[in-house]
C-alpha cells in the first residue's frame, strides 16, 4: 500500500527516466497521471468527444516518441500540452469536416451494435436544462477563434497562469491576456451574461 501511494506522487522526471530505460509500467503510470488533463484539453479544442479521444491517443504516442528531446526546461505538462495543441492542429488539417454527429438511423435492435443506449436518450430529456446550457457553452466556445479557445481552455479548464499559457503557446503574456479578455467577452455575449 505504501509503495502504491509513493508511486502516485513520483516526480515526472523520475518516471521519464524509467521510460527512457524501456519501462512499460512507467509509461502507463505517466499516461494515467495525465490522461484526464490531455483529454479535457483536446475536448476543449475540438468540442467533440470522439475527436478528443483520437487527439489524446495520438498526442500520447507523439509525447512518448518525443521524450528523449524533453530537456526539463519547462514542466512535463507544458511539454505535453504543446504536443496536444499541435496534434489538434494536425488533426484539423487532416479532417476538414466539422466532426462526427450521432445519427439515430444507426439505432439497432441488437444491443451490441447500438451506438447509444436508450436510457441515454431518456437521461438527456430529464436533464434538458443542463444540456441546453452545455450546448450554449459549446456554441459559445465554437464562436471563438482557435487562439482564443486555447487560452480560455488552458486558463479555465487547466488552471494555468498567464505566464504558463504564454510558454505553452509560445506567445507573449500580453497576447494571452488579450485573447483571454476577448474570449470571456464573446462567451458572456453568447450566454447572455451568465458567465
Work out the helicity level.
over 70%
CATH topology of the largest domain: the name is Rna Polymerase Sigma Factor, Chain: A
Q: pLDDT below 50 for ≥5 consecutive residues: which ranges?
A: 1-8, 97-126
The CATH architecture of the largest domain is Orthogonal Bundle
Q: What is the assembly state of the chains in this entry?
A: single chain
CATH class of the largest domain reads: Mainly Alpha
Residue-averaged pLDDT: 80
**How many independent structural domains?**
2
Strand content: under 5%
Secondary-structure element pattern, one letter each: HHHHHHHHHH
Largest beta-sheet details: none
Calculate Rg over CA atoms: 19 Å
The global form is globular
Cα distance spanning the termini: 43 Å
Explain this structure:
This protein is mostly helical and 195 residues long. It has 2 domains: 1-96, RNA polymerase sigma factor, region 2, helix turn helix motif (Rna Polymerase Sigma Factor, Chain: A); 127-195, Winged helix-like DNA-binding domain superfamily/Winged helix DNA-binding domain (Arc Repressor Mutant, subunit A). It is built from 10 helices and no strands. It has helices at 2-8, 12-20, 24-46, 49-66, 76-94, 118-126, 128-142, 146-156, 162-169, 173-191. The radius of gyration is 19 Å and the shape is globular.
Furnish the topology, listing elements before pairings.
Layout: H1 2-8, H2 12-20, H3 24-46, H4 49-66, H5 76-94, H6 118-126, H7 128-142, H8 146-156, H9 162-169, H10 173-191
Helix pairs in contact: 2-3, 3-4, 3-5, 4-5, 5-9, 7-10, 8-10, 9-10
